[in-house]
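Crash report, auto-generated. Payload:
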Amino acid sequence: MFTGFIEGLRKSGVPVSITEHLSLLGAMEAGVADYSVEDFYFLARSALVKDERWFDRFDRVFAQHFKGLEAVAGEDLTAELPEEWLRKLAEKTLSPEEMAAIEALGGFDKLMETLKKRLEEQKERHQGGSKWIGTAGTSPFGAYGYNPEGVRIGQHESRHRRAVKVWDRREFRDLDDGVELNTRSLKLALRKLRRFAREGAAEELNLDGTIRATAENAGTLDLKFAPERRNAMKVLLFLDVGGSMDDHVKASEELFSAARSEFKHLEYFYFHNCVYEGVWKSNARRRTEQTPTLEVLRTFGPDYRLIFVGDAAMSPYEIVQPGGAVEHWNAESGQAWVERLTGHFRRVAWLNPTPEPAWSYSQSTAILRQLLEQRMYPMTLDGLERMTRALSR
Amino acid sequence: MPFASTDKYIASRDLEVSVNAAVKLQRPLLVKGEPGTGKTVLAQEVAAALGMPLIEWHIKSTTKAQQGLYEYDAVSRLRDGQLGDPRVHDVANYIVHGKLWEAFTSETPTVVLIDEIDKADIEFPNDLLLELDRMQFYVYETRETIVARQRPVVIITSNNEKELPDAFLRRCFFHYIRFPDRETMEKIVATHYPDIKASLAREALNVFFKIRELPGLKKKPATSELLDWLKLLMIEDLSPDVLRSDDAKLVIPPLHGALLKNEQDISLFERLVFMSRRG
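Recovered output after restart:
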């Protein structure tokens, strides 16, 4: 019954399974949402979507799939408008220039007045164009068109005094995981990295186990041991500072504060643009108190996960050329250092705060991506998840 | 009887649909939302609306799934064994029933609240999959299977601290409680304090929503904080004018503690109020 809808959801990336489809059908059969589109929308959302970050995508697919259901004209303004006028046929896509070219008509009252006049003048169904009321046009009246001061007639829902349907409101846009992160969501994502593992030799007396074993032995003492439980994940954070990273300072700071509270073993160092022979812990004393990168390699074992955070935007020479660094003379190229680091720490990733589609415009990003064997991830919830998955392998 | 808003609890239409779907299909309902938006209260209201007793199971970080089913009290048995108590011969004497056992064997259908499931270990929801799906479990010590007489209505709340496993989610209905808008909030206030002065409620809501919009607050006040605060204001019999004033000295004392629970937040608020006065 809703196969197309389910397919659409899956295509847009909402994880929906047969179980959920069946439970939706079951609920429909049980009559949970009879006779009301809105109830059906709520029910479908409750049954199919299990995480608020998918709500926005769900809304979009729902709007697209069930367009016909809500194509009823509003009552107060457009009681005389035949419904078929407003049946959406095609949504006209306008180029930004065209959009800019559209002149807003004036204040709201003026719009209403003009609308009334047009309604009187207009006698037939209309689509497209820039004056008459209909669908997909650029007149301020009608639906699915574009005009900065538009009145949406086709989607108008007068009884509730709302201009748009629930699913058209897209209130959950902020929860979509494509958007930028705040500290909390970062923490959530990083928590994935945190993995409790029992490792090493038996160390702790397992009191519960001992009591149980002793009781089961009818009172003969039987000592049980268990390995100490500890947070086994060790993380080394390399943060890019200064230069083009200034725009992303806030995001990086948040990542840092989130990371600090999540891991028991977390070490961090700063670098500028690309890693060379020295990194530093305090930005104010970057000139005087550098830690040699070789020392970092010696101090931290390969069990550390190395995460670079940086926008990877620089001149390609800063990576491939000895002496290419912007701040000092480097005897060895950045590439050599990155390769040394990725060779030592096998589980390495690069977090990039710039949006993923923009990466292809920067040559240095492409080089670094290649050096990291494509393990570069955008600094979004989704990117962090992919990163943690790659790192916890 | 379907679940609907009561005179004590305002439920949005989408919440009603979710609850009714979960009750009809006898599936667990997973409720998420900002802290303080009434997730736990929801279970109490559902139980009241359906006329069923509520069994609450509050989850802590150390809670194991097994504890919800039953526990074998080996220590008592050991002690009894050494004292020569005849009870020791029957292992069933040492099986301590958990919350789900209680719900499964109850004479009447019940509502089970599994509160803050995300507090527990990551594997916790997985360990309960089969039990919640089939509503039965096996007791190894006594070799018996406990089957639910009536499938209880299960409501699970989560604060989003951990992600729940897909297999678990697939079996649930899901509802995300959004922060109520002004209109709903007015209704909520009215149901809780029917005899509050209208002017006080209006001013208080103004302040409340203004505070929620402050950028950089560590903990945004939510519904439960608002209700506590209003109670405080009513006890103090504060005049609405005080809330309207921009004087930090006047405004901050009634806010302290009830709405803002964090020293940094209070200082941020002070700074902003001060700035707006100068500007």
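Post-recovery validation: The interface with chain A takes residues 13-14, 17-18, 20-22, 24-25, 27, 30, 32, 72, 74-75, 77-78, 81-82, 121-122, 160-164, 166, 169-176, 178 of chain B (CB under 8 Å).
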